Amino acid sequence: MVSYLSGFRKILLTVVKNTVLFSLLLFTACGNSASVTKGKPVTIENPDNPYRKGINTGADRFWLYLPALRGKKVGVTTNQTGLVTTQDTVRELETNKIVLQPRQHHLVDFLLSKKINLQTIYAPEHGFRGTADAGELVKDGKDTQTGLPITSLYGNNKKPSAEQLAGIEVMVFDIQDVGARFYTYISTLHYVMEACAEQHIPLIVLDRPNPNGSIVDGPVLEKEFSSFVGMHPIPVLHGMTIGEYAQMINGEKWLKDGVQCELTVIPCSYYKREFYYSLPVKPSPNLPNDQAINLYASLCLFEGTNVSVGRGTDKQFQIYGSPDLPGDDYYFTPGPNEGAKNPPYNGVMCFGKDLSEVRRVHKLEIKWLIDAYQNTTDKSKFFTSFFTKLAGTKTLQEQIEAGMDESDIRRSWETGIEAFKEMRKQYLIYGK
Q: Which long-range contacts does 252-259 make (Cβ < 8 Å, 24+ apart)?
C-alpha cells in the first residue's frame, strides 16, 4: 500500500511539474515573440482544448493568453461582442453522468473571475454595452456591473491618450468585426494600436471570424479620402479577420510616423474564411441578424445618399427607400427605436425595396444603388458629401451619374483589388 501511494505521488508531482513548465513556456511565447515585422506576422498557436467543438474564437482559447496577463495591470478594448465560451462540467439528472456544457461569459467578467487585474474598459462606437446610436456621443463612465471605469473611444476622443493609458502594462483587444472598411471598429483598432505603440504597451488581439470573410470587393480607398469611416487603402470588403487586419496595419506601417505595435494575435481555430459564420450577438444596434450583416456593406453606401436603409424599423440594412422613389413595390415608415432615436425620415413614408429574403450576396452589390439613383425624382439631391467618404473615391459617384454600366464599374476596381490581394497575402492566418 505504501509503495502504491509513493508511486502515485511521483506521478502526481510529474504532472504538476509539466503543467507549470508548460505555463511558463506559454507565458514566454506570449511575451517574447510578440513583435511583428513586415512579412512575418506573429501568432500564438498551441494545441486546443480537446473538449471544445466547432470554431474557437481567440477569446475562447483563454489558456493561450491568460499567462501573459497574470500579475499585470490590464486594459481591455471591447464591447458586447467580447464573449468567451467555456466548457463547464454539469451532472445530468437523468443519467447522473458528468458532461461538458458550453457556457458564455463576457470577456470582462471572465477575466475578473480569473483574478486578472483589470484597470479600465475602452469602448468603441455604440459604447461598451453596444446600445448607442450610430454617431451618438458616448461619454466616459463606470460599468454598473463591475465598477470598472469606461473610457469612450468615439467622438472627439478616438485615440486613448497617454493619461488614459497610464499604468496599463498590457492591452487586450476583443471586438467582433463584419469585414467592411467603413465599419468603425477597425478604425478603433488602428488608434489603439497607435497609442499602444507610442506608450510601449504590448497589445493582444483576440481574433474572431469575419462573417463576410470570403468577399474581397469594391473600390480601393484613395488616400485623400481617408477618414474614420475608411482609414486605409483597402477595398470596401477586405476579407480579413480583425487579427489579420491588425497584422496588416502593423506590417504596412500605417500607424502615425510608421511606428509599430508590439502585437500578438491569438487566432481562431477550426476556422476557414470561406466558412459561414453566424454571430452570437448583434455587433451593433442596427445589424440585428445575419441578413443585415451580409447586406451591410452594399446598403451602407446609401448612407451617403438621401435614401434610408431602414434605421427606425425592424429591418435595418435589409430594406431601403425614400419619399423620392417610386411607390409601386414596397413602403415603410421609420420611427424611433433602439439604435435610432431620430432616424432619417422619422414618421415619413418611404418607398423602395425589401431585401430581407434575398439570397446571400457574395460581392459588393451596387445594382440597388444604381437603380435608386436612376429612379429618384431629383437626381441633384441624391448624393451627399458623405458618399465620397464611404466610397473612398469620387469615381464611383461620377460613374453612376454618368450612367456607366454596372459591369464596367466593377471592371474599374479589378486592378486595385488584385494589388490589395497580393499585399495582404503575408498577413493571412487562415489561408487565401
A: 252/38, 252/423, 253/38, 254/190, 255/190, 255/193, 255/194, 255/197, 256/194, 256/198, 259/194, 259/197, 259/198
Cα separation, 89 vs 100, in Å, equals: 5
Q: Region 406-429: what's the mean pLDDT? A: 98
At 299, the amino acid letter reads: L
Show the cell assigned to 268: 481562431
Residue 304 pLDDT > 70: yes
Task: Give the strand pairing for 73-78 and 117-123.
Answer: parallel
Among 223, 202, 78, residue whose Cα is nearest residue 148:
78
Q: ∠ CA(109), CA(202), CA(143), 5° rounding?
A: 30
pLDDT tens track for 38-92: 334 444 444 444 444 579 999 999 999 999 999 999 999 999 999 999 887 777 7
The conformation of residue 37, written as its DSSP 8-state character, comes to B
Q: Cα–Cα distance between 208 and 243 in angstroms, integer?
A: 8
Dihedral of alpha carbons 380, 383, 389, 394, sign: negative
Q: Where are the alpha helices (DSSP H) in 33-106?
A: 66-69
270: left (phi over 0), alpha (psi -120 to 50) or beta: left
- The string of pLDDT tens digits covering residues 200-229 is 999 999 999 999 999 999 999 999 999 999
Among candidate residues 176, 134, 127, 174, the one with its CA nearest the CA of residue 153:
127
Q: For residue 128, what are the CA distances in angstroms to 22, 116, 151?
A: 34, 19, 9
Question: Any idea what DSSP says for residue 381?
Answer: G
Give me the amino acid identity at 115.
K
pLDDT tens by residue, 146-158: 889 999 998 889 9
Phi-psi region of 121 (alpha: psi -120 to 50; beta: other; left: phi over 0): beta
SS3 of the chain: helix, strand, coil, percent, to 5? 30, 20, 50
Q: In 376-425, where does DSSP find H-type helix?
A: 386-391, 395-401, 406-411, 414-424
Give the residue with greater pLDDT, 54 vs 235. Answer: 235
Give the DSSP letter of residue 220. Answer: P
Residues 6+ apart with CB under 8 A from 289: 318
What pTM did the predictor assign? 0.85
Contact (CB, 8 A) for 26 and 64: yes
Looking at residues 131-154, what average pLDDT do you find? 73
